[in-house]
Write the structure tokens for this entry.
Amino acid sequence: MNTKDRAKAVARAAEPFRALLGPSTTDDLLSWMRAELGDADALDRWVDRGGAKTKALAPDTILHVVSGNTPHGALQSLAGGLLLGSRNLVKLPRGGIIEVDAFVSNLPASLRTTVETAEELPAGWLAQADAVVIYGSDETVDHFRSIASPSQTFVGHGHKASVGIIWEDPAFASCDGAARDVSLYDQHGCLSPQVFYVREVQPGFAREYAGHLAAAMERFNRTHPRGPLRVEEKAAIANLRAAYRFRASGDLRVALWEGGPNMDWTVVYEEDAWFASSPLNRVIFVKPLPVDLPSSIGPALAHIGAVGLFPCTEELAGRFAALRPSRFCPVGRMQEPPWTWHNGGIPRLASLVKWVDFEP
Amino acid sequence: MQQDAADLETQVLSWIRGNRPANFHETVLRLHMFQFRHSAPYRAFCRQSGVGERAESWRQIPCLPQDAFKHADLRSFPVEQTMKTFRTSGTTGEGFGQHHFRTLEIYEAAAREGWRRADMPAGPFLVIAPHPGEAPHSSLSHMLGALAPRKDFIAHGGVIDIERLRSIKEPVCLLGTALGFLNLFEVMDKQGLSLTLPAGSSAMETGGYKGSGRNISRTDLYAMFGERLGIGPDDIYNEYGMTELSSQFYARGPQGLHRGPFWARAVVTDPVTLEEVAEGETGILLIYDAANVGSVVGIRTQDLAVKRGDAFALLGRDPAALPRGCSRAADEWMSR
């Protein structure tokens, strides 16, 4: 199978997951190859490189250790490995990821046999891998980095937190998109916003925005209810609500909107711009955009994944470049990274291949 | 008002010391009424929770979120009567909580009587934590100071007096934070030192690891006590306490359940309804502490626990809780 045939097969398998993965036609996948390797055929033939020629060499075997936060990361990682023509060993979280199983079952037999999945890491998988791709906590990434061999290509995707910035939205047009960004995957993904920073175009605007966002969270929840919560997740939300309810009763700089009898969603407005870490599961903070946002984000600055912007302009992306995310994107599309996204600032295909040059 | 406070303090103090019988239910209701009258933030919180000055039962009294100590002045007495303020160890940008006291007599009596009634080791002690003179805002240091004299504090300016440990000839009880003990073990490892303390020695450790980058199970920590100091796991106690409380809960051994004194009750509750969970179920820990005379009697902690009869098995902080804790403060102090 050449690259084009693999792209066709992966595109077919990805078709049912269009809502998750976005446009995934053969051309989309080949465009991704082209964007990262310079030529979509770079794995199949010598391609020109200055006066010489070069060819990409895919790793024979890739070990993907994927997290259960969202199916998206797992599917994109596996699809990349399949496009490269590698054998793919996929360590799933406990309980598996049903989307991964369905995706694999959609592949033609010739590709399906190149994928093995397991919920416990089988002995020997790490040693068999030429490349190791890890999604998970910083501790998980550090663990695998410490046991991987120096000869293995290692790509780690650790903790990330995302934020949204509402620069100008007098009609609150971004609220439904913002609610979607927060609510999809119950906020478990690295692209899920935890705080929306809202520019105070007039005094009290950020607080007003929080109220509109709360209404949008409720609208989204009616059609897309939140998943079940474990007791510790319930406790985290209940404690946060109790603490902010107390503060809101005597402090106008704080406000709380609580959705549903089952802690469906929570919006906290807080004048203090210091980055607040959400307990997730649809708990979102709204804060006025400070003059010096990087300082307010503090230690979380090293972990910023995506920054949603409204409106999404290059000028605004430039203004907030110091946040150093791997992605600026429109509010409402934070959960839909394109195939070409440099996750963690890393080209996901190019980081795995090696090159052989031919000098005639 | 001052007379009210003094009467209440005297009553609680006598009760804790065993000099005067009292009823938990009635005492806590009286404390709630006093605090409702004299603390505006507490009064607002109670009203928001639908509870007035007179509650029908102690379980009806709403428990204030622990976090509230960071954001409100929860004194039930005039500011000028403040004798002491303990601070939580704020390790994030959120600042620290403050627990104010009009008198420390009750706090100290609760520490000593709580220790005695929990059948804890009688001493002598060696304390691996800052003395109250070095950490005046640490409630833990003050509590340890209520148990042990100054000469038994063997960590000064962040340096542990290893020679004092080596020279022990009689059974001793070591007191400190889990992180403080880890520091001690690291120092001992660097010096290639391991000791077998005299038979009958014991230890009490407290505090978690959040924010420290370390995470060691109680079983593993207690094994280290055995390897480095020769103290068996059943001779090691864990203390559960916090700046926002005046009383402590103790558990013996790695699997031990926490129990408190008769003037403090722990209730494991459903996070949403705050109803007590069934036996063996997990929930949020609420503490009613009658030694909290000048602040707030009911505290909603950020810890999860499993209900085990009249005791609880501590699971620890929920994921939303911020990295802080007495243990962290002492660790930073000792690492300087």
Remarks:
- Chain B has a mean pLDDT of 89.
- Residues 127 and 144 of chain B are 8 Å apart (CA to CA).
- The interface with chain A takes residues 41, 44-45, 48, 64-65, 67-68, 71-72, 93-94, 271-272, 282-284, 300, 302, 304, 318-321 of chain B (CB under 8 Å).
- Chain B has ten helices and 14 strands.
